[in-house]
What we know:
- The structure holds two protein chains of two kinds.
- Chain A is mainly α.
- Chain A has a domain at 39-320: MetI-like fold (Orthogonal Bundle), CATH 1.10.3720.
- Helices cover 73% and strands 0% of the residues of chain A.
- In chain A, helix 5 (93-105) packs parallel to helix 14.
- Chain B is α+β, with helices and mostly antiparallel strands.
- In chain B, strands 6-7-8-3-9-10 form a six-stranded mixed sheet, with helices on both faces.
- The model of chain B has no long low-confidence stretch (mean pLDDT 88).
- Classes of the chains: A mainly alpha, B alpha+beta.
- The interface between A and B is medium-sized, with 23 and 31 residues.
Amino acid sequence: MRRFRSSANGQPGWLFPFVIAAIMVLSVLPLGRLAATGIVSAFSGGGRGVLTDPGLWQPVYNTVATSFFGMIAAVLLGGGFALLLTLFDIRHKRLLGFLFMLPTMIPPQVTALSWISMMGPSSTVLKAIGMAPPLGSPQPLYSISGIAFLFGVQNAALVFLSLRAGLLALPRDAVEAARLAGASSFQVLKDIILPLSLPGFAAGAAIAFVSCVGNFGIPAILGIPASIYTLPTLIYAKFAAFDAGTFADISVLSALIGILSVLGLVVESRVLRGRDYRVIGLSGQIAVFRLGRWRVCAEVLLWLTIIVILVLPLTALVASSLAPAYGVPLTPASATLHAYQEILFRQAVTRTAFVNSIGLSLTTAIGLLLVSVLMGYFLVCGGSRYAGLISALADIPYALPGVVLAVAFILLFAAPLPVVGISIYGTIWIILLAYLSSFLAVSLKPVTSAFRQVDSSLEEAARLAGAGFFRRMTDIMVPLVAPAAGASVILVFLIACNELTVSALLWSAGTQTLGVAIYNLDDSGSFNLASALSVLVVIMVISMMLLLEAMAKRLPKGVVPWHS
Amino acid sequence: MAQLSLDRLSKRFAATDRAAVDGVSLTVREGGFLALLGPSGCGKTTVLRMIAGFEQPTGGAIRLGSRVLADGEVSVAPEHRNMAMVFQSYALWPHMSVADNVGYPLKVRRIATEERRRRVASALSAVRLEPYAGRRPADLSGGQRQRVALARCLVTDPDVVLLDEPLANLDRHLRQEMEETFREFHQRSGATMVYVTHDQAEAMALATDVAVMSEGKVLQLATPQEIYARPEGRQVGMLIGQGAVIKLPSPAGDTRALTEDMMGTLLRTMGAEPVADVLVRPQDVEIADGGVAARVISALFEGERYAVKLSLPDGQMLRAFSRLPVRIGETVPVLVRAGWRL
């Protein structure tokens, strides 16, 4: 009779301990360790007085300035796109939306590289059309405004998604009531839709700001050559010049990044105070406004934007990868695949990076699949009173800037593991653990939303049919959440493959990832090799996004991020 | 097969700390068909889910014959109770075909493929769904899905079949057809059935026994005929039939079945103490000369007759049927042919 006692809710006894252990290792321990070091060093004089160091405040200012202006650019770009695509009768909406999503999915260092290829004196594209600035003139992107602008391009899709979700949730009857009250299209837009979509705007802006604060790839490539440091690149630099006080310093700096991120979110909630527009009533696609003869103008504007933020930089990137050497003009005669041969077949470093990145991403995606199916089942079907707390804890590592998370893992694993006495610091395992932690939320979200769609009676019917836990999982639950689980594997693989920030701090010889390899190639001046590697990464990103796009119809809402 | 008995069964949810089920004791005889009838929130579904094993009782015991399914000490998991259930949502697995849905309990029990195929076919033929064996649940209508769920119950010869408001999602026409199917199913399988519903007509039409529940307690357990004719207490009286419960002077000798003469006397001495609750069914109220005066509050034309709401001189309400139209606001004489002291 003993075995019946434990199956009050039909879960095996090990499920709760498993979930707790996973959340401890992936969230509580690293974050707790980081918080502990931060608090200790703050009390012991702020890590050798890093806080009183005047050299600190310039990076803080840079971070805030680039993030703030980056947020403005993202709001203008993403907001404009969301309003035009959601509310007006633009043609080819899905294609435009998909293309607009791409800059966010492309790794930031690749974005930075492609823009460098496009602008500046050595630009292959500008040279080919004879418009390159004279040699020796400064690269305009190596500046605060250059970084901010690329932050905007990179994060515009975040505002786009947030605002569009808000717009799609607007009650259709509110718009129809305003129409019946005699408001013109323009008045409806101005008086009803824009005020109601403010929360979406604010949320998108806040996410964009937080994402800019934690961005490492863009300021690393654009800022470091011009000695413009932001907090993430400062941590990287401090880490490169490692000494005894580094841990204390970087934990304080990570705390600063955390504080800036939280400030961004606080400002958002201030903006939204007293504007609780809980949307009542039937929500649905709001009536589309007709642009009439302005439609062509709007479409031209949208496509021009896509060309400027996506097509031209990527073309420039491809051009640089085909050029025989950095700065040499690209002609049909001089084009060569030499760089691709080099990175694919000759350079051991890039081949290791491919193996590492793909291996890490696959292991992360599949490992997280196992964790998130069990954890998602526990959170949705387990009826535990800790479900809210556990899902919040699972979300935090993803919400934190990658630098902060990497620092947390460094602090946690710098010393050898207790009991076994083995140190995983400097090995690929620490990157794997950090990936598992960082992308847990990415993997968990589609799976939990799929579990939520499964009526509890489906599992209960299987129990009455006599099926035990494993039987039910394999026959009923897993097949039902399989499409979402598949999407979560692809999403995690996609994001992990492109990841730079976490691995930039955690890699060591032999464990470099693709993101690190691109950054290092550029750093050592092999610009065309970096470009070629970037082109391959972009191709990989686009093909996986297309795969997700093709799956989107069979998935629950919200699983594919760019579908609402 | 054996008799299912609940012994002072209680359930207290931690979240509300209110007894959802409060000391329910009842016995379903072998092969019986028990309807748990009550308004939503009365605890009937919780009782059903405790019988199935999805909820653990906080007090009392559930037994099937001599076997203890749940008490303070043990709780047999649903997968080991040999029960089957028809859910309100049917709970068909969308990724399996109709035949796979029906055959799943056999597959879990490791019945050989040949035998399984045979039993699935016979279960499907019992609910007249053989041609649909290869379809997905999504391609079926509501009534067909319901019948698949029933066939899934048929296939394993369960000790107890539980039905959780199985007709709630069907339209009126289909309900009657499904009621017929359930009756047939019950006769054919001989299984003990427990049926949860808030619809008294459904309960009356299907069950061999009806348990009326309210606020976690069983108010009365009896055959449908008995419950209708001799309801116990004000709540049961109000739940069963469309009768009105009015307060009248307590009849002499505490008689329960009140004749027309007794009703007439009571109505004329209204206001005297002590009072008693008396159930008056609309078919026993007639608008005819010689009765007490009552004012027409509303008259609803129902086709074959008018459903009339009347107000007695002291403001209490009565319901009546009338063949002839009456005007709202008019005062009419009312004869009460019978009453039942609750």
